[in-house]
Records
---
Amino acid sequence: MDERALLQEVYAIIGREHCLDDCAVIPCGEQFLVATTDMLHETTDFPAGITDWQIGWMSAAVTLSDIASMGATPAVLLLAVGLDDPSRLGEILRGARDCCLEAGGYIAGGDIDHHTELTIVSSGIGMVAPDHIVRRSGARAGDLVCVTGVPGCAQAALNGYHQFDKALMEPRARVREGEVLGRTGATSMMDISDGLAISLYDLLEANSCGYSIDREKIPAPAGVPADEAITLALYGGGDYELLFTVPHDWVAPPGFHYSVIGSVIPDHCVLLDGNVMERKGYEHTWVRGARGPDLPGNGGVQ
Amino acid sequence: MDERALLQEVYAIIGREHCLDDCAVIPCGEQFLVATTDMLHETTDFPAGITDWQIGWMSAAVTLSDIASMGATPAVLLLAVGLDDPSRLGEILRGARDCCLEAGGYIAGGDIDHHTELTIVSSGIGMVAPDHIVRRSGARAGDLVCVTGVPGCAQAALNGYHQFDKALMEPRARVREGEVLGRTGATSMMDISDGLAISLYDLLEANSCGYSIDREKIPAPAGVPADEAITLALYGGGDYELLFTVPHDWVAPPGFHYSVIGSVIPDHCVLLDGNVMERKGYEHTWVRGARGPDLPGNGGVQ
């Protein structure tokens, strides 16, 4: 059963309209709730050498990043933890709590279970004013394509550039940046946890326009040979930066750091220096995704 | 590491106040959101012979039941599914969708992953007016102690009384009953997924009063020898009925089916026919709980 067939089946059962954003969106009074869930397993999702505190931190960060990518403010996190060893729980919870203390929200509950392999499912709820929500759709030809931070750092750590270990193991959810982008008129957004290139293709799926990216404008990990660095920036996964579009005359608020990497074009394709960009990123065997692919629905993944 | 030490550690990290109800409670404009998450594993949580459709149904029902036990109305469900075999996903999603169609809410998203053992984490959000929310705390001496349906049926099926297989494998979340109880002044409530006796002790933990139960008033599975039936009703797990208290002069709305099984007493204890009731239920090795015990937080389990 290939990925496409699986996704088509999911679309048929729960509706494709629930599958296009990083979070589900639920009207609640005068606000929108956004909600997302992410499943992480010890052997497939956590790098070697990571501490339990970092496992907790990362589990919270992937979900807070989904909330950030909608322009929303985190409210609460629920953690379901299948533990191989109960003595690990304390550090995992402390890591998740500390991530919330930095990014926003708090741990409001969860579920504990015994499991042969450590498995953590982090679910989060955020809130956003309807005028400030940002979705994957909404890009318009002429908009600028931008990214926060430096894509490729997490993959650089996996490739042995240990100066980037912290980027890999203690990712920062870009919550403040997401809120600012929501308030200042970003036209579309998602996070790049699956990699920059594949995220551009995810945006493509949600929009009728396309994207033209300039290789030389893409920030890439420092201290890595140039060819490898740009490959990491384009195709590496595990970075929780925001990929977004803004009107061409958008003015960044003071202190807002980002890079313009290209522009939105009328043609429905993704170009890199004028040629079609390879659609490649972190992939599971049989379903797309970074650390557990989309169950459409919402923010399947990240 | 015993259960009590683990729970004390969790309380210290995330706050005991988040650990007393079936759901976390989050103010949202003029409403309260309730949110809960439940982790289920193939070998420990799903009975032999269950179909994938029923696995999906049950995964949704356990979470909808948590929402029901707060008096809330289900809004959305998120499903994180770790699949050993991708061809199972369709039936699992159909089962969860069909449960939502009956009980309320809809599947708004999730996450799909490959995993050696089928693992499903169902997270749900419900909404309730602040005046209508019902918590585990709130019981007052003189109140009546009541239960919906017949406790013990799920355990009866596990004991070989196959007329109860459907109760075990396709539990009904008592959403309509929970809403009615919220609107008509129930003073406290939880579901009895861990068993009736242990749920009375959970209520005890959240209240300063106690409970006096009459064995002969407890409804028990029909067609089972009397002694075994009452044991099933008291100590069996896997029933998603509501245990609740109401003022002694409460009048049930027409068509509302329930049983009065005892009364709330000033003394902080649980009595069965005047003697202290055994604190026994479905237990994991090292943490309390039905199908994955409380990560306090909120509605850990159920």
---
Amino acid sequence: MDEGRTEIADMGEFGLIKHLTQNNDTRQAGTILSVGDDAAVIDNFGRQTVITTDLLLEGIHFDMMYTPLKHLGYKAVAVNLSDICAMNAIPTHITMSIGITNRFSVEALDEFYDGVYAACEKYDIDLVGGDTSTSQKGFVISVTAIGEVAPNKFVTRSGAGKGDLICVSGDLGAAYLGLQLLEREKKIFLESPGVQPDLGGKAYLIQRILKPEPRLDIVNWLQENDVVPTSMIDISDGLSSEMLHICNSSDLGCILHEEKIPFHSETKETAYEFQVDPTACALSGGEDYELLFTIKQEDYEKIIRNEQISVVGYMTDKAEGAMLLTRSGNKHKLVAQGWNAFPQ
Amino acid sequence: MDEGRTEIADMGEFGLIKHLTQNNDTRQAGTILSVGDDAAVIDNFGRQTVITTDLLLEGIHFDMMYTPLKHLGYKAVAVNLSDICAMNAIPTHITMSIGITNRFSVEALDEFYDGVYAACEKYDIDLVGGDTSTSQKGFVISVTAIGEVAPNKFVTRSGAGKGDLICVSGDLGAAYLGLQLLEREKKIFLESPGVQPDLGGKAYLIQRILKPEPRLDIVNWLQENDVVPTSMIDISDGLSSEMLHICNSSDLGCILHEEKIPFHSETKETAYEFQVDPTACALSGGEDYELLFTIKQEDYEKIIRNEQISVVGYMTDKAEGAMLLTRSGNKHKLVAQGWNAFPQ
């Protein structure tokens, strides 16, 4: 046995995953896609099953001080459905496991499950299993989502071609600013418990961080309009990080046009208040749960008919790197500064 | 909103699950079996998919002081495969999510995954996804297992008929005594760190608690011999608790014959050393991960050819209750004293 000690922080989340799965064999003939994408794909004699799982830990992924339990239940489901959508698949089922400390009452859990069931109802999915347990510290949530897709119609990160157009759904950067607002109000509350939170005019930002929605509408629209993305990923860690995933997996470079990145008006206003660059919020903020995907150029005419989709750039040769073309005409390398699951 | 506070401990694990899932709707036509059994069943145009999930939390489900990481990885997989086997299905895939504190080195995680992959190899299953994250406290493990079964050949807890024979695989009570041995040695070590652990002659008991095996061999044997159990469950919380699940779900009573309960010789010897009743270890000990199932009487001749299966009783009318017939000829009501996920 090697006596050396390698710190996990030195490896980073993606390095660690790569390390841990390097010897992962595939034995089942039905395993079409395994570890390394948003979800796995299993063949099922006609349709294919897509599966994904996420762990949400109190103090790491959410702060109970400003996260209403109903929203948390909804979000725990939503972020998993987003991974299924990122495969161009339709979510159908989830399992939900929770570990809870004795500070939780049944009424508190009911609120959490109200949110879980609200998400199930909205997205027409079934909760089919789970596990409940005591936790020594903190609220532990583990969700597995399952979806279905027609044979070989799933979309991975690796299929982008040179010249393909890069698209994002909705708008970016709002969830990050929503989180900054909640953190600011928490700080004020801890210093002066009597002060009421001031979140006027920020409803959109708060909703984006507390109650994200998977873009199943986009997946359905793409199918209805016969647009098959060449690659796709959901934006959980910021546009830069996800764009780099697509570039690396597809062995290509890209150019993103800063001026094309879509923002909500509240995002722009609040970014200026906080004296941060809205582009930085989009690139590195994370938690937007929008879809980032590439399409063939011939699908451009179809795509622009959907106001919820913005074309933000195109794929280039790998040698050209993954670049941002700024409003002022400068080129910057994209850097993955997304949320790090293993902070130093 | 109800202002009252209901303690989760007052409800118990099964009461809580029932409470939380009472409004759980089924929307997907493919959902054949949802919450409430060992695993859910999803129809997939030919084969059916079985899915189950378990959360394992440090300090609640395992003690890192005496649990080697490789064994822990193996066990985290094995206990989930056991749930798939309990549906009379063949496990095919797992996802594995972990939350880890910074006291973990990469080498430590490698050991854990050595165990995970060893279980995957032994049971011919694929690890197809997961999530890794920091944890503020304690090692968090969440596994989801998927299996397949021919259409409507899955076996639930609710199908037992009056007069059906009750069978258990392997032997019972060993894992509980293995745990007692490890707890004893931990106590001695904490009091006198220089003392070496004394586990001579206890290899079987230690193996049963640290490295349980799902009884896929039994599932395969049943299929090869055309025996379809009428009901089945895996024994994770003790024979009493699991027997009561089958009785309640099947709306029947039962009689278990104490003298028929199978024990390993080490179990009997060690029970006497600890001055506990081996029957109590089997009934309430838990973690044996054997299969408990019922068969029609006409399958008796087939079943007795398998030395790994013991017939321990039969199903009766509900009015007769769930009873243990002791060696001395007395009848006692079975009581679920299994491991409680929500201790008071």
